Amino acid sequence: MVRAGRPVVSLLFIAVLGLTVYLVLVPLVVLIVASVNATGAHLPFERPGIFIANYLTVLRDGGTYRLLLNSTIFAVGSTVIGIGMAVFFAWLIERTNIIMRRVLFVAVLVPMAIPNMIYATSWLQLLDAHAGLVPVTLAKFGIPFPVSILSLGGMIFIQGTALASNAYLLVAGALRNVDPTLEEQSAIAGKGVWQTLCRVTLPILRPALFAVIVFFAMVCIETFDVPGMVGLSAGVQVLSTRIYWLTHPEGGQLPDYGTASALALLLVIIALMLITLYEAQLKRGRRYVTITARGYRPSRIKLGPLQLPLLVLALGLLVITVALPLFMLVWRSLLRFYVYPSPAAFGRLSFSAYRALVDEPTMIAVLRNTVLMSVATVVVTLSLSALVAWLTVRSPITASWRRRLRMLALTPQGIPSVVIGIAFVLTYLRVPIPIYGTVWIIALALSTKFIAYTTAALTAAHLQIAPELEEASLMAGADEFATYRRVLFPLLTPALANCVVWVLIQAIRELVIALMLYSPSSQVLSTQVWGLWQNGVMDQLCALGVVSALVLAGLLSLPALLPRRWRWLPV
Amino acid sequence: MAVGQTASSLTRRRLVAGAAAGLTAATFPRRAVAAASDVVAAAKKEGKVVVWGTSDLTIVRRIVQSFNRTYPDIDVEYFRLEAGPATERLITEHAAKQVNVDALETPVGYIEPLIQRDLLDRFTWRQTFNVGADYVLYDRRVVQIWNVEIPLCCNTDKVKPSDVKSWDDVLDPRWKGQVLLEARGQALATLALKWGEAKTLDYIKRLKANDAIIMLGGTPLAEALASGRAAFAIGTYAGKIDLMKQQGAPVDWLLISPIPATKYLMVVPKGAPHVNAARVWIAWLASPEGQAVVYEQLHYGFLVGNTLSPNGRKMRAAGVQVVVEADDPARERALLELVSGAIGALK
Prior knowledge:
The structure holds 2 protein chains of 2 kinds. Chain A has helices at 7-37, 53-60, 62-95, 101-109, 116-127, 133-140, 152-176, 180-188, 193-204, 206-222, 225-234, 239-247, 257-282, 307-333, 343-346, 352-359, 363-393, 399-410, 417-428, 439-463, 468-475, 480-509, 512-517, 525-534, 538-557. Chain A is an all-alpha fold. Chain A folds into 2 domains: 1-48 and 351-571, Orthogonal Bundle (MetI-like fold); 57-319, Orthogonal Bundle (MetI-like fold), CATH 1.10.3720.10. Chain B is an alpha/beta fold. Chain B has 2 domains: 36-147 and 263-311, D-Maltodextrin-Binding Protein, domain 2 (3-Layer(aba) Sandwich), CATH 3.40.190.10; 149-262 and 321-343, Periplasmic binding protein-like II (D-Maltodextrin-Binding Protein, domain 2), CATH 3.40.190.10. In chain B, α3 packs antiparallel against α12 (288-298) and α7 (186-195) packs across α8. Chains A and B meet through α11 and α24 of A and α3, β2, α4, α5 and β8 of B.
């Protein structure tokens, strides 16, 4: 397994492999068993036997192929919009001398704090043909609103814009590590800003960008919020909504985990295909090294006359995708029922929803659980994925074993959250590890879900660092641990910091897994949001969205007040 | 038979079950009836009941406060969980011999998987706590705690309630794109018991031809109606509309016959850790005292039987017919599948 005799590394590899196998194979085995064992009337493991009926149902149903097509269009469209916006803002904020950088940075990231279902609700209230703010306002001037938000295009637009802030954090982390001398050389050679971006900056980011694209394409294929809310009224079904309805049937049926798992295996196959493509990118890893021993001097591209048009474009995009939905959120949080903004409506505004949130007796416990759960998720996910990334990029383990470990760590991206949830319920009700019903089981399940992305992001970050830096440290007598701590870790810090922020926010927002695993004593913020949604307390729901956005904006603005040596934080 | 109670009362399955129960009673000696005072004493010792249900926690807290005025020694820990995931969780926990719930709130549909797996405790509800015979179902395993009526609802800024005379009025072309329709179709599935399948399917077809807006969930539907997204809603609850109206929303529900209604039930699972406290909680909910509190807080109550809610009395006084969903879960499921399939949003 190990090329050279390094028993400590070998033992570490075995330990990490064992833990990854445990975390990933449990839901994967449940998925496979459910696909051959469960039916509409039986839960997985309720009866013995292996049946292929679920596969026949899925493969013979012409609807499956329609769902695949819709999912592909939805995922590609949303990813193009989301990643496109993320790359634009990340490049503008991280690589250029654009003014108002701090404002742009905070504004881009604020939607990340708003749960997708609240964000989608805001868009529906803005653009709904009958009562939406924009169509009704235009109608007052006799202008018809030309598009329908209740369509596949509307779904793609909402999902894409919701994706942009998430993707920004990850693209910005990779961009921050690009050696500016490469762009300076391009400028010296007479290439303009656009040519430098297309021919120098983006190609060198290929593994990181590819990881982001693969991840978000899978997120879009798996996500339920926007397709569930908009697609239902638009009459557009995708794979995730089908899986959701199979696992959340109405009218007394038990979840059809059999058919859902057979469909979900399609997701795993798609994920494995994308991971294979990602592996092909990694084979040319050396081409993506951007941090070398030759010195590293941060500098920014001077925009010159492009400064103003690019700023106007950026602010315009932010007004449409951030300010408008946020305004609707604030407006809605101040009213018990939606009323079109007017002087008369101002008389009805009140802060009662905010007061109700403060007065909610369970809120303290919910916040405490949320902090515990999200911090535990960050610790487990980042520790494991940092080790996987280092072992698979830098360790002397043989290439085939490194590839196996990496593919294993990336596989959960294709496993639907609902399957991870049921796998954890079935496992931890039976094994003598007393975490069922606690926040720790939620943290462990979320770590399983998030390890795929953080492994991809940290692998890309490792690839950007030239190995000669560590070789020099080893030759100078430092051991592997000291080399990691003193050389690699400081260079990985921006990517790690971005991953920490990302996992933290995703852990707080994630709903499906939390809903399947929470108990009266382990309620978290996302389950609280779901409760408000289910009970139709929209003003409190929107108030919670506003508070979350304000808290995130405050936290993101905080590092500006820190001393310069702390500026590696994701700003 | 109570006003408007149709189709749900006498099925072949019920006849067979009744005959079997009679045979059992004749063959075996009469089971001992627990005294209410003994159950209450045991419940006080248990000190707590864990309830899984779907109601708003703020409202449940107020109901619990009233319960605690009568039973101050029993804490109620209410856990908000939808009926489907709750049923699934109970089955899984029971298989692992780790049941964590004492009283489960559920609609009729989810009773079948629980009965099939013999997970529900039987109890002498009528003899011990004097729970009305109309509300003890499925061979003493289940107590009905309220009905949920799902009438035709309207936005009063867009429609004058007195102008609407029948369910067919919303099919008028002037209401094109102005009807919100709940995707799962519980209201129309229940109406199918009265209308028949053919008429119901035709009604859905005409609604869709009139560009009905399909949405998921009765509560979001009520919110959308209040915000003026459409003039009518089919699939939201009278109780919810009453509460919104009290808070100033321009909404109302219409006394148009027939009004479909579902049943909400409460069960005690076998292996429940606080079985006596669960029985006391359920019996209190079904009592006139509990029903008064439930109606005050949720605007739900019984629409049939002897303990009618104010809405039930209002419907009876107006001569409005109430159609209650079928007790037979298989029939109920078949109708729901038929109707939600015709609506076509969940496929």
